[in-house]
């Protein structure tokens, strides 16, 4: 065979095969899988062919696999950031607090100046408590449950500290319901627990400002008629003679645990002073 004819038939044969090769590179719009046909004899289905699955469906699944995980990760990161931000601003109970000194720079600042009225209707401020250890509690005389319990714990703790350990702590009760807790009402209420408890009230704005300084949460909850309750955090604060908050105690402390922790802080303060 002449060489020219051989080249011609060879080229013609390659071009004839090329259309059969093209579908391999052209994405098919239908993908086959196993199918079933009804058997007339036993009623079971036998695999006969390949059912069709649309490429669009498979493509949408692939798109979701790439897009949904990053969206979930992003949402999870946002939730984690918000939780971390709240944790940073939260007050940890039973720990030390920063009041401006460099050795507690990592803790949140708490406490500040205030001007209120005592049960004798006399104006007092934070300067009058300098030189005393103070156990400060925010409550109200109409509290039905936690309030009286906390005042009782406070009274028992300071009484035991003074009688058994010769440690004097001045208990101070600040009302968060000044609209109902006037000086006379506050005096009569605290007398039932311990006459040594100093009661403080005053204008709503002044009480609210002090509560904000000490990061005390409270909210009025309306009841039937004109009655209402006050939700609050029920925290106690131990304040040193320089009016700096050194500890915060929540409702989980009973009187024995409270006096133990107060005694520990006061003894530590004496050792550091020496």
Automatic annotation (TrEMBL):
Keywords: Membrane, Transmembrane, Transmembrane helix. Belongs to the SCO1/2 family. The keyword NAD does not apply. This is Protein SCO1-like protein 2. GO terms for cellular component: mitochondrion. The chain crosses the membrane at residues 63-84. The keyword Metal-binding does not apply. Coiled coil: none annotated. It comes from Hibiscus syriacus. CDD domains: SCO. InterPro entries: SCO1/SenC (IPR003782), Thioredoxin-like_sf (IPR036249). One of its GO terms (biological process) is mitochondrial respiratory chain complex IV assembly.
């Amino acid at each position: 065979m002449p060489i020219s004819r051989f080249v011609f038939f060879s080229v013609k044969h390659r071009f004839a095969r090329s259309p059969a090769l093209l579908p391999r590179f052209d994405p098919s719009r239908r993908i086959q899988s196993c199918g079933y046909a009804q058997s007339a004899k036993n009623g079971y289905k036998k695999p006969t062919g390949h059912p069709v699955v649309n490429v669009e469906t498979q493509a949408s699944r692939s798109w979701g696999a790439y897009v949904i995980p990053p969206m979930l990760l992003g949402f999870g990161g946002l939730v984690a950031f918000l939780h971390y931000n709240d944790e940073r601003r939260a007050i940890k109970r039973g720990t030390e607090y920063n009041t401006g000194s460099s050795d507690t720079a990592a803790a949140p600042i708490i406490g500040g100046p205030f001007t209120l009225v005592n049960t004798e209707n006399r104006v007092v401020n934070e300067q009058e408590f300098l030189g005393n250890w103070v156990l400060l509690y925010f409550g109200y005389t109409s509290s039905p449950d936690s309030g009286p319990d906390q005042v009782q714990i406070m009274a028992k703790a300071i009484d035991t500290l003074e009688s058994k350990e010769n440690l004097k702590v001045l208990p101070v009760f600040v009302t968060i319901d000044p609209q109902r807790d006037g000086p006379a009402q506050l005096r009569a209420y605290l007398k039932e627990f311990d006459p040594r408890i100093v009661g403080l009230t005053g204008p709503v704005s002044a009480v609210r400002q002090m509560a904000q300084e000490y990061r005390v949460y409270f909210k009025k909850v309306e009841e039937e008629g004109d009655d209402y309750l006050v939700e609050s955090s029920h925290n106690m604060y131990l304040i040193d003679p320089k009016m700096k908050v050194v500890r915060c105690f929540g409702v989980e402390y009973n009187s024995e645990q409270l006096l133990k922790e107060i005694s520990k802080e006061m003894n530590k303060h004496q050792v550091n002073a020496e």
